[in-house]
Write a structure and sequence with these properties.
This protein has 226 residues and is mainly β. It has one domain. The chain is 0% helix and 35% strand. It has strands spanning 15-20, 23-26, 51-59, 62-63, 67-72, 80-85, 95-103, 115-119, 127-128, 134-139, 146-149, 165-170, 174-177, 198-202, 213-217. The strands form 5 sheets. Strands 3, 4, 5, 7 and 9 form a 5-stranded antiparallel beta sheet that branches. The chain has a 4-stranded parallel beta sheet with strand order 2-13-14-15, with no helix packed on it. Strands 1-12 form a two-stranded parallel ribbon. Strand 3 (51-59) and strand 4 form a beta hairpin. It is globular, with a radius of gyration of 16 Å. The chain starts with 14 loop residues before the first strand and ends in a 9-residue tail after the last strand.
């Protein structure tokens, strides 16, 4: 991230657990004890409104679900740079990206599910593949967001080895956890078409953005499939 020109919090791009397929068993004791750490880049700070950024990776015609990759809390209307890890095609196809933006953080996080005005670009005009390890673009609070529809059953389950988050499940990996993940960080979960990708004893809403999960204890106001 530093090589892409980011400094401070924006230069940190860390995953607590990064799995490429198979099953991960995580037996932490929840928010009061050890749990997977991790963080997402914060591209700009100081403002009052929190923006959460999501990348939809498209490998040829097959696109993935939105994946959180960073946050911004801008001041004023000036442009700032955001960046996400470059994805390498698993099929030799052309890779493109749709970059989505929602508002809120923590329990107030809004995930892009269904159809809404989230995209930085219009439908049919994704961002092209970049040549560096970190792809970048600019955004501002004055950007007019365009409609985008997320897939219920994504055609692409990407193998990501360098994505930020508390737990990053690439290549269709599955997580079994006994308790909560740490609060305040991104949990990037890959959905399956026929079964859950995340099974836990309990969960909190801001960790469940846009994924398919099954938890024994679900707080009010959250569904098990988002």
């Amino acid at each position: 991230m530093t090589a892409a020109g980011f400094t401070g919090y924006a230069a940190f791009d860390m995953a607590g657990i990064n799995a490429l397929g198979n099953t991960v068993n995580e037996n932490s004791t929840g928010p009061t004890g050890p749990a997977p750490g991790g963080q997402e880049p914060i591209f700009v700070t100081g403002g009052a409104t929190t923006y959460e950024y999501w990348a939809v990776i498209c490998d040829g015609a097959n696109c993935a679900m939105p994946m959180r990759f960073g946050q911004a809390v801008p001041t004023g209307t000036g442009a700032y740079t955001i960046g996400w890890p470059r994805y390498a095609s698993q099929t030799g196809s052309t890779v493109t990206y749709y970059i989505l933006r929602t508002t809120g953080a923590g329990y107030a996080l809004s995930a892009p599910f269904g159809t809404g005005n989230w995209s930085l670009t219009a439908a049919g005009t994704p961002y092209a593949q970049c040549s560096s390890f970190i792809c970048t673009t600019t955004d501002s609070s004055t950007t007019t967001l365009q409609p985008y529809s997320t897939a219920i059953s994504p055609a692409l389950i990407p193998t990501v080895w360098n994505w930020p988050g508390a737990v990053v499940l690439g290549g269709g990996a599955t997580l079994f956890t006994s308790d909560l993940l740490q609060s305040g960080v991104s949990a990037v979960i890959r959905p399956f078409k026929t079964r859950q990708a995340f099974l836990c004893r309990s969960a909190i809403p801001h960790q469940l953005g846009c994924m398919w999960c099954a938890c024994r204890e679900i707080p009010p106001g959250i569904t098990t499939r988002r």
